[in-house]
Prior knowledge:
Layout: E1 8-11, H1 21-33, E2 37-41, H2 46-54, E3 63-66, E4 71-74, H3 81-87, H4 96-103, E5 121-124, H5 129-139, E6 145-150, E7 154-159, H6 164-174, E8 182-185, E9 200-203, H7 209-212, E10 220-222, H8 227-237
Parallel strand pairs: 1-2, 1-8, 2-3, 8-9, 9-10
Antiparallel strand pairs: 3-4, 5-7, 6-7
Helix pairs in contact: 1-8
Amino acid sequence: MAPRPLKLLCTDLDGTVLGDPEGEAAFRAWARERPLTLAYATGRSRANVLGLVAEGRLPRPDFLVGDVGTTLHDLSDPADRLGAHFLGLAPAGWPAEAIRAAGQAERTPLQGPEGQGPYKCSFYWDGADDSLNAFLRRLAPLPGWRLVPSAKRYLDVLPRTFGKDQAVRFLAAALGLALTQVLVAGDMGNDADMFRIGACGILPANALDEAVQAAAGSVHYRSRLPAGRGLLDGLRHFGR
């Protein structure tokens, strides 16, 4: 069977689009042609991303997966019905405040208010195995969570129903697409699970091992170029 044509790009922002002015400019030029439906999958909030769009630094996407995959927005729909449907996957009574209280410690301090959400509890981490193990022991009695570590610096605790991978699956299904029609791109641990869902993938040269190890399959491409230039190189590799 011939491979299905790619229809949707879900890309991380920091380190994948952002971080290299030349690459950012090239990505903006690519997006003007919009050969694929465009979604950002980022740890940033909707307001933060739309601020970058308003500044002209990012092209406006069709969809936004924000807050490490705990929000999803259809930017073409003022009522954002798709986003409300996605939020309906949230478990009732998810213990966000209990998770923040249990996880907080000297070596895993809470991030500021901008790092928190109803379904996202975010911590800094000193990168040591023993502090991570202690963190996990403190959270063990609490129900229904998953841990997303990144760069040996950040810990995000989310409901099991959320995450960038879950949001991309949901979006693809809502658009009537098979995952083989989806192209993902990222560079860090909070992108890693996107590379495991059966989509094609792009990693820039600056991708960390935690993402590279998740993208070991033949459907993934690692560029020799960094950030936005690496993303564009990958898009050319996939004929897009």
